[in-house]
Design goal:
The complex is a heterodimer of chains A (about 220) and B (about 325). With about 220 residues, chain A is mainly alpha-helical. Chain A has one domain. Chain A contains nine helices and no strands. Chain B has one domain: Alpha-Beta Complex (Sulfite Oxidase, Chain A, domain 2), CATH 3.90.420.10. Classes of the chains: A mainly alpha (about 220), B alpha+beta (about 325).
Chain lengths: ~220, ~325
């Protein structure tokens, strides 16, 4: 079995199963009554934590490919991104259905007035076009460049998610800061990499038209 | 009321919540509402939970089936905000076993004629406890109904004879990072401090609690002695008190100092003044699914609204 085959046939299904474990545990704890005194809050917190975690895992795929030299890891990226969207959606639905019970005026007020909810909601909205354009057909239709540019929005959504967490807690807590640091490292890696590539491109004989003056 | 030491209580002796609830119903049925009335206005906020017995003196906009039902002992002792043991709701029940509620003293001092260092057992002996069923409304928009054991703070304050210069009461929690692991991190400026205006402190609803559900106060609920101010958000009801100081100026209450835009000194439950990060209009009663509307002064307006006459409670929140 080649490396690509191993990743597609073994690793990918395994990761799929593993990624479902948090949701499965949630369902189990719900039916066993193990979600504590305030189950809705517990579900909200758990789905939110996993949403952020999967966003970070998705963002680490490309750096891992480069660092480990295993380009084929890209075959996991879409699935992980969709799992991030899955947990974000569960988190959002928990709020709409369980927490607010479709109380629209209260929901609108929350989104309009409470910055941590505003930014959380915006991040959720940001991820919707990414999930919708995750199919091969959509990649083709948009064209690789445009698709890639659109999908950089995941950094915006992840930053919004971290801010959402940071603004939600009552006192300085390590967890939102840890997510923030991970995001900074991941984003920093990509920026550095892009700079290096740009430098390389400048040194190499010109293949494409030069960038317009003044752009960076 | 005699309260046993925790090591005297076998788990087999702990009254099941259901039985406890039935016992109250039985007592109320046996003594009758007339007897309750005979106890006088002092029990007007004491609410019966049994069916067939009218809730005493509680105005509630809910139908009978939505009435205040006691929150389970498990929830009351397993879901706590007590940052001295960690910021998670489960932390206090996990980590509060390191707190030593005996020996324990409470210094009552400041603008008083007879400052005194009370031993906790002397307090329990000399101030007989009664049961008070109060709603507890957390600033995080959840609530419980808790059968406290305690006595009016006023009784203790009367003992030390406040001077006319005493305008406020300042309460302080124990500071001991060895017993309270959460204090090893400076998430809040320790020790925790809270305060009341003199008239609030002397109000008959204001309780010093030493137990709940007929038992000694569990550590995670603020053993051995805590404040309970039912018309204010829960963070006012300071736990594990070691000092009560009568003072001239408004005390620097911890949350008020940390985030004055979010937590006022008064912190009266008020559905019309939102916390900047969440609405206070509704609350989730622990054990219930749908949120219920939050009541002004947590439903104790008849008893306490007059304390704030002429004050703009949207500014002095």
């Amino acid at each position: 079995m080649t490396q690509v085959q191993f990743i597609r046939r073994v690793l990918k299904p395994a990761v799929f199963i593993i990624a479902l474990i948090p949701a499965a545990l949630l369902v189990r704890d719900f039916f066993q009554g193990d979600l504590g005194a305030n189950p809705i809050e517990e579900i909200t917190h758990r789905t939110g934590t996993w949403a952020l975690t999967f966003l970070m895992i998705t963002l680490s795929v490309t750096p891992m490919r480069r660092l480990l030299g295993i380009g084929a890891l890209v075959h996991l990226r879409r699935m992980l991104g969709l799992f991030a969207f899955f947990y974000v959606s569960l988190h959002f639905l928990t709020y709409i259905v369980l927490d607010q019970f479709f109380e629209l005026p209260a929901i609108v007020e929350d989104i309009a007035k409470r910055p941590y909810i505003t930014v959380g909601f915006a991040s959720f909205l940001t991820l919707i076009p990414l999930a919708l354009t995750s199919t091969n057909r959509m990649v083709k239709r948009l064209g690789g460049r445009r698709w890639q540019r659109l999908h950089r929005l995941i950094y915006v959504a992840a930053a919004g998610g971290v801010l959402h967490f940071l603004w939600q807690v009552k006192v300085e807590e390590p967890r939102p800061i840890i997510y923030g640091l991970i995001l900074v490292v991941l984003l920093g890696y990509r920026i550095r990499e892009q700079r290096l590539q740009a430098r390389k491109a400048r040194r190499a004989p010109r293949r494409a038209a030069p960038a317009p003056v003044g752009s960076s | 009321m005699l309260i046993k030491r925790p090591d005297d209580i076998k788990s087999s002796e702990i009254t099941d919540e259901r039985l406890y609830y039935d016992r109250r119903k039985f007592i109320l049925a046996a003594t009758g509402v007339g007897a309750l009335a005979a106890v006088g206005a002092s029990v007007s906020w004491l609410r019966a939970t049994g069916e067939g017995v009218d809730p005493v003196g509680l105005s509630t906009p809910f139908a009978e089936d939505e009435e205040d039902v006691l929150t389970s002992y498990e929830s009351i002792t397993g879901y706590n905000n007590f940052y001295e043991f960690g910021t998670d709701k489960l932390d206090p029940s996990k980590h509060a076993h390191t707190l030593k509620p005996r020996p324990w003293t409470v210094a009552v001092e400041g603008e008083v004629n007879k400052p005194q260092l009370f031993d906790i057992d002397d307090i329990i002996k000399s101030f007989p406890s009664e049961e008070r069923v109060y709603r507890l409304r957390c600033v995080e928009a959840w609530s419980m109904v808790i059968p406290w054991l305690g006595f009016p703070l006023k009784d203790l304050l009367d003992r030390v004879e406040p001077t006319s210069r005493a305008k406020f009461v300042e309460f302080t929690t124990l500071y001991d990072p060895e017993q309270m692991r959460g204090q090893k991190r400076a998430i809040l400026p320790w020790p925790y401090v809270e305060g009341l205006r003199m008239d609030e402190a002397m109000h008959p609803l204001t309780l010093l609690s030493v137990g709940l559900y007929g038992k000694m106060l569990p550590n995670q609920n603020g053993a051995p002695i805590r404040l309970v101010v039912p018309w204010k958000y829960g963070f006012k009801s300071i736990k594990s008190i070691v000092r009560i100081r009568l003072v001239r100026e408004e005390p620097a209450a911890t949350w008020n100092v940390v985030a004055p835009g979010e937590y006022g000194f008064y912190a009266n439950v008020n559905p019309n003044v939102d916390h900047p990060r969440w609405s206070q209009k509704r609350e989730r009663r622990i054990g219930e699914f749908r949120k219920r509307p939050t009541l002004a002064f947590n439903g104790y307006g008849d008893e306490v609204a007059h304390l704030y006459e002429g004050m703009d409670l949207t500014k002095l929140y």
